[in-house]
Amino acid sequence: MLGQIQQEENTYEHVQKRRHSERRFSSFSFFDEQEENLKTNHLILIEDVNVGKSEQILSNNVFGFEDVIVSPKETSILLYYIFIFLQLEEHEDTYPTLTQLDASCLRDFPAKYAVRALSKHQFPAKGVYVDDRIIPGFKYRVQRLPDHQAINSKNQYLFHGNPLTLTSISRGYGRRFTFERNQEFPDEENYFYSDNHYGGYGFEIHAISKGDKFTIYDANHEPQGILDITEIVGKQIEMGLSHKIGKIERKVQVKFIAKVEFYDSGILQEIPLSGCALCVKHKDGTSAKTIKIVGVCIRQRNYYLIQGYHDQFRRIHVRDVDIPTKYTITGLSSYELPVIGTYVDPRIVPGFHYKVRISNRKKYLFNGQSLRLQSIGAGYGKKLTFELNSHLNAENYLWSDSHQDGLACEVRVVMNKMKFSIVSGNQILGEATVFRTDLPQIEERMEKVEFAADRYGYIKYVHVDVMCHIKVDINDSGEFHNENLVRVYGLAIARKDPGRRNAYVEQVINVGLDSQLNLIFARSHKGLIFLPKY
User: Fold this and answer.
1) In b/e form, how buried is each residue of 457-484, taking b as 16+ CB within 10 angstroms?
2) Considering only CA atoms, which of 455, 463, 440, 530 is closest in space to residue 496?
């Protein structure tokens, strides 16, 4: 009798548990409950768990319902709610977490703020609160943090998402952050105030950028190759900040994809890499520089990277097509063309001007003058004959195999004292006279053009960076005045036609002036072209 009663009580208890679970997870009863069940108690419960797959949550009994038998229908409802919770967790901008800021901790005005969705790698700024890790001279990417009215605005970045160097931070209640000019959008404002946006701002340190170049060194401090960053992967996270005598040092964890070329193999590979970048800003300097990246693993070996290409170690492997010979020449810059043994670079064409030096020396031949190449001889040792630079000195030639280390030739198309007309459309705006041509002129490409049967010409596209005396006609009076010494950039188009001994500059396009004149021309005209005046 007692056993029968005990069995009935167990059955009743099991039924009660079953009804309790059905009431708890029924899709109808869920919406009948109070609104507070939809609030933070569920979110906190999910956030306290290391969320993985929904099956893992069920197996770990996250919700604390032991001894509960869940039907397939109830399971689908539960998975639906878990999916909603996971979505909330993945999208932080839906329910952003609050971060409290107290400016009195920075020995500033005793103001307190709260910002939403501040990531761990970001430094906050709002009102009078400016994180002490936001230092002028370093490069940052700035993000508008979401406010209470627009919680989905988390991914709004200033300056089109480009990282820029912070130049200054003003004082006062509304701090003004001034950055360098954005090269892609030079006419846009390069500053903002800390109280412009109610949600505040998040600053992300930026130690490296796409296009940065490094030299690879091994543990013995020997250069092994070169590296060119092609893509930045993920966020750049600060690992340490130290103030030393006369400088500030920052360590930043970086991940990137780079083209790697080792000197020995000459093979160019694009591989993902990571390391710790060391940024240094000196007291007298205006901007910080990334001088080194340590802890870089390539081919299961550790290396470190030094900013910039060190051309004295750069090796180039060349092969002569006509004669089965191979050579390795060391120390050429990226804009120089090799000549060694029987090999003469095919981009070295008679009619153009070149500066020549021995590859392992800094001193140029022919007293550093750029001379027009007259001819290239045939044979194993090719004779390169240049125009005479002096009637008293007839040594105007050299042999390709005269120097064991090889020769480096740099093309020159824009010379001192050349005169140009500054043209936009059909209007002549001024004239320019070349004053100095110290910087390298870098050949972008060369085209071989057929003018007639077996008659070919050559066109070279060369980037130039020169100093010019410029006179402009601002008042449309027909007279040029107000001479200024201006730095000029552009792409020079030089051509050598068949039957002509000398190459000549046809025009200089994509002209940019390192002066306020560039703003005047850019606003009132479509583009500038330099046409030579012969």
Assistant:
1) bbbbbbbbbbbbebbbbeeeeeebeeee
2) 455
Query: Tens digit of pLDDT for each residue in 145-188?
Result: 887 665 555 568 888 888 999 999 988 788 899 999 877 777 78
- Axis crossing angle, helix 72-90 with helix 2-25, rounded to the nearest 10: 40
Kindly list the distances between the CA atom of residue 237 and the CA atoms of 119, 122, 253, 463, in Å, as whole numbers in the listed order. Answer: 11, 8, 5, 37
Q: How far is CA 16 from its chain centroid? A: 65
Strand residue runs (E) in 191-342: 191-193, 201-205, 213-217, 223-232, 237-244, 247-262, 268-282, 289-298, 301-307, 315-319, 326-330, 337-340
Tell me the C-alpha distance between 429 and 45, whole Å: 71
Let me know: does 156 contact 144? Beta carbons within 8 Å. yes
H or E segment to which residue 29 belongs: helix 27-32
Give pLDDT tens digits for 13-41.
554 444 444 433 333 333 333 333 333 33
Distance in angstroms (rounded) separating the CA atoms of residues 125 and 103: 10
The CB-side HSE value for 249 (13 A sphere, CA atoms) comes to 12
Instruction: Give the pLDDT confidence of 49-74 residue by residue, as tens digits.
Output: 333 333 333 334 433 333 444 444 44
Q: What is the rounded distance in angstroms from the CA atom of residue 152 to the CA atom of residue 338?
A: 56
Tokens 């992967």 correspond to 233
Which residue bears the tokens 């002036």?
A: 513
How far is the C-alpha of 134 from the C-alpha of 236, rounded, in Å?
15
Measured distance CA(185)–CA(110) in Å, rounded: 38
**pLDDT level of residue 248 (50, 70, 90 thresholds):** very high
Q: How far is CA 173 from CA 126, 407, 465, in A?
A: 10, 62, 44
Name residues whose C-beta falls within 8 Å of residue 10's C-beta, 6 or more positions apart in sequence.
Answer: none
- Using CA atoms, how far apart are residues 357 and 345, in angstroms rounded to an integer? 15
Contact 226/213 with Cβ under 8 angstroms? Answer: yes
Q: How many helices (H) and strands (E) does the chain have?
A: 6, 33
Distances (CA, A) of 292 to 231, 234, 253: 18, 20, 12
Q: CB–CB of 137/165 below 8 Å?
A: yes
